[in-house]
Every structure is written in C-alpha cells, then in structure tokens.
C-alpha cells in the first residue's frame, strides 16, 4: 500500500481546515459595543418564554440618587429627564470571550435591587477569534 497519497490528502485537508478557520476569523466581525451610549441588553432567550406575573411590592423602592448617577455615568437625556425611570442597581461586567447572562433582582421586603451575573462556559472545541501581533 502506498502511503504518499494518504499523506498528501491529509496535508491538503489540514491546510484547507486552517484556511477556512483563518478566513472565518478574519471576516466574522462581531458588532462593536457602543462605548458612549447605554443600550438595552437583550433578554435571555430562555426567559422570554416564561410567563410574567405580578407580585406585591414594597411601599417604597431604594434607588440611586438620580442627579449624581446621571452625572457620574453620563446617562443619556432619555433616562435623565424621565421621572418614571430610576436607576436601582449598577454592575460592571469584566471582559469575557463567552456570553454573560445578567438578571436584576428586587428584594420586595427591603426595596433594594441588585444585578447577578453568570458567565456561560466556553465550548470545548471553540476557536479563538482574537488577533495578536508578535
């Protein structure tokens, strides 16, 4: 049995896979996150299918002082001038290659809100899309 055609076919397949991976990483552009504007985060897909219910709330809700948070976080005028929209919690999410799920929680006894985060694990056979020089 001749080994040369099998080796050539394996090398061609390996080069083809490397070229396809390189082309995907060069042309697959993720949309850049807006740095100057706040945008609404998309909801978690699994949570969209769950029914929304009404629960009794606290007599008052604890919020962050609106004038100061608008100034410090440079919130847009749509939030700053709307008296019905209040900032109840903030969070800073560290950079991560995978998805990060976020949920906002309201303690109906105390009226305080918090944001909890969970980072989805990266796939075992995932390709890195980062570009480096050097």
Can you summarize this structure?
With 134 residues, the chain is of the alpha+beta class. The protein has helices spanning 4-27, 45-48, 66-73, 77-80, and strands at 100-106, 113-119.
Helix content: 25-40%
Number of strands: 2
Count the DSSP helices: 4
| Secondary structural class | alpha+beta
Q: In order across it, which strands form the biggest sheet?
A: 1-2
- The fraction of residues assigned to DSSP E strands is 5-15%
What does this entry look like structurally?
With 134 residues, this protein is of the alpha+beta class. The chain has helices at 4-27, 45-48, 66-73, 77-80, and strands spanning 100-106, 113-119. Strands 1-2 form a two-stranded antiparallel ribbon. A hairpin with a 6-residue loop joins strand 1 and strand 2. It is elongated and about 85 Å long. The model has no long low-confidence stretch (mean pLDDT 84).
Topology summary:
Elements: H1 4-27, H2 45-48, H3 66-73, H4 77-80, E1 100-106, E2 113-119
Antiparallel strand pairs: 1-2
For this entry, give a set of tags:
134 residues; alpha+beta; 10% strand
